[in-house]
Specification:
Layout (H helix, E strand, L loop, with lengths): L1 H22 L43 E6 L5 E7 L4 E6 L8 H16 L8 E6 L4 H8 L40 E4 L2 E4 L8 H13 L3 E7 L3 E4 L8 H14 L3 E2 L11 H7 L4 E6 L7 H14 L3
Parallel strand pairs: 3-4, 3-7, 7-10, 8-9
Antiparallel strand pairs: 1-2, 2-4, 5-6, 8-10
Helix pairs in contact: 5-7
Length: 311
């Protein structure tokens, strides 16, 4: 009996020990780092303000050849003005008002642009020069097939073939569309030409009007062809004294003869005469032919005008 009791107690003790052992968790044999597949949380690095790289500024546009688009033609070609110098006195030069018929007036304007790019010291500190080389870009395109600057070799038409290119895309003579003695029908030599439906009815003449109204140039030179001379402007109020001065200065320096008025035939709606009506001194420089820019003559006339406004 005693032995039986001892055996029972032993079984009970063994059972209790086994129960306790099984309740105790086993220690892990490996440690595995969890993988984070979620969105990482951004952290701010501990960087001194001087070490932070700033956001780069956009590049500053080059100002070597400043230009502005002052309007567009009927066929949506830009009418561009080129600006040189930073003085308060603006002298404006205009070419190509008669498009491809007088392509040399646009070419002499582009020659002036090239000259000023290469000789910036030719512009007095008191002067700002603006050049509008092609007021009638649609007409010019007809004979050059070029947008913007061109050379003599680009000209594809000569003689009477260029006559349709004198007008804008609505067959209006732009130099009959300005506000001085304007008429719907104007005269060119022995021909009748359209002056437009009203003064400044054409986008090209509007572009020059708006530019002049805003910038208020001190003097304007407009190139035409072909007669060979410098002509003062006037709109029934007499020639402005400063216009007379400009006429004589340009003529003497260039060698062209000077004239008080253009009176070979009646001119209506003329650009320089409108400028005179607006109180702005303006002269017409008529090249001798339709093919030569007579650059050296015109360079001397231009330099005389610029020197005058340097004083």
């Amino acid at each position: 009996m005693k032995n039986t009791l001892i055996i029972v107690l032993g079984v009970i003790i063994i059972a209790l020990v086994a129960f306790v052992f099984l309740r105790t968790p086993a220690a892990p044999t490996d440690t595995v780092e969890p993988t984070d597949t979620g969105t990482p949380v951004a952290t701010t690095p501990n960087v001194a303000p001087s070490e932070v790289t700033p956001t780069p500024e956009p590049p500053t546009p080059k100002d070597d050849e400043p230009t502005s688009v002052i309007g567009s033609s009927i066929e949506e070609r830009d009418i561009t003005a080129y600006h040189f110098g930073s003085g308060d006195t603006e002298v404006l030069f205009v070419g190509g008002i008669h498009g491809g018929y007088s392509w040399n007036t646009a070419l002499v304007a582009y020659e002036l642009i090239s000259y000023l790019e290469k000789n910036p010291t030719a512009i007095p500190a008191t002067v700002r020069v603006t050049v509008i080389p092609a007021l009638n870009p649609d007409g010019l395109f007809k004979v050059t097939r070029k947008m913007g600057s061109f050379t003599r070799a680009d000209v594809t038409m000569t003689g009477n073939d260029t006559i349709p290119a004198r007008f804008n895309a609505r067959t209006v003579d732009l130099n009959r569309n300005f506000d001085c003695d304007w008429r719907t029908s104007g005269t060119w030599q022995s021909r009748q030409v359209s002056g437009g439906s009203a003064t400044f009815s054409e986008p090209e003449s509007q572009a020059l009007r708006d530019y002049v109204t805003e910038s208020k140039p001190s003097a304007v030179v407009v190139w035409y062809s072909a007669a060979g001379g410098v002509y003062a402007s006037n709109c029934y109020n007499g020639v402005l004294p400063e216009t007379t001065t400009l006429t004589n200065l340009y003529a003497k320096a260039s060698g062209y003869p000077a004239y008080e008025e253009f009176n070979y035939y009646e001119i209506t709606g003329d650009a320089v005469n409108w400028l005179a009506k607006s109180g702005i001194p303006a002269i017409s420089v008529l090249l001798t032919s339709h093919t030569d820019t007579e650059w050296e003559k015109n360079r001397k006339g231009i330099e005389a005008i610029l020197s005058h406004y340097a004083e």
